[in-house]
Amino acid sequence: MTLLSPADFAERAGCTEAQLSALRGLGILGGDGSGHDAGDVNRVRLALSLEAAGIALPDLAEAIRAGLLSLDFTGQLMFEPVALTGIASENGIAGLGLPVDVVRRMRSAMGLSELEPGAPLREDDRELLQLIAAARAAGLSDDSLARVLRVFGQSARRTVEAMRDLFRSQVEEPMLAAGAGSGAMLASTAALRLQLQRLGFRALHLLQRRMLEDAVFDNVATRIQEALPARPAGVGATSAGFTVVFADLTGYTMLTHRVGDAEAAEQAATFEAIGYETALIAGGRFIKSLGDGILLQFGDAATALDTSFRLRDHATILALPPLRIGLATGSVVPRDGDIFGRTVNLAARAAAEAAADEVLACDATVEQMPAVRRPSYRFTAREPSTLKGFPAPTTLYAVSRA
């Protein structure tokens, strides 16, 4: 067992020593404060991310005491855990002589979120920056580097999502169907998760490992949200929740065959650019690009819906392929500039169900629309359907301008 000083442990976990003390006081983190097990870094990062999502730490601690869940498995969350470096992101970028706009473009091409100023760099983020700097020094143009990184990112994400879905369908879902609670299931499958990760990903590189960690964290955060008791209305940081928008270009694969990879990539880049600008103007957040899709976050449903239609109008004006847009409202789990959880998954599933030029929203999004804004839109309920990853039938609403 590797023990770290409180200062070193806090640096790796990306928090303060005061936060560690609070977690110890609640019983979420063990020990007397003199030293910390390096394996508990993920426990702290997961607990603080859930707090940021609106789950109060006392509620989490009470659920642990009541036996609804345990965080002991977090030491086995990843077979090669990634630590933070203690280097601020802007300092790491400046030290390599990389322009900020180039870093933003390359990370977007890979499907990674933008680095936040002042936030400590992850070890893998620092090495990826070093690789980008080395590739540019070797003479690769930014356009060619962005194209190959986009291919790397899309391939890596498809790989880890296939692994995640296999684990869910073959390991987790059968246990849940047999009556196991989410907390017990997460604890009992931890060792198997590690074994399968080693078999599937030992030979893969840093970007693939990062994508795997994102997918695992998303799944764990979702299961813990399911395991916790429902909170009364008004309890928590976000009672109404955020509205997440997932939008992608329809028929992108066919587009590459029709106009070629280079032109298709340019259209995807144009789509990303208008998504970024449209979200910012509306006061929302551009979370990340996913090749031919984008993920946005807004503080309320009305702004998210207005922006979705503006985005669709811009795409039409620029002669881009038709968009498919999905909206979902609820809590999200923020982590490393990205967002995870059931709300994000539902927005992606809604977009996948949408037809070309169609906007689909979940019932929570429709319910959050202010009465004064409802006359601007028509909401037509579809027949409830079972979406991938959601056990109960879900009702989606086709939204159109009134």
TrEMBL record:
InterPro entries: A/G_cyclase (IPR001054), Ad_Cy_reg (IPR032026), Nucleotide_cyclase (IPR029787)
Lyase among keywords: yes
E.C. number(s) listed in UniProt: 4.6.1.1
Pfam families xref list: Ad_Cy_reg, Guanylate_cyc
Gene Ontology molecular function terms on file: adenylate cyclase activity
Gene3D superfamilies: Nucleotide cyclase
Enzyme type, top EC level: lyase
Domain Guanylate cyclase: 243-351
This protein's UniProt keywords: Lyase
Organism domain of life: Bacteria
Protein name: Adenylate cyclase
Organism field: Kaistia geumhonensis
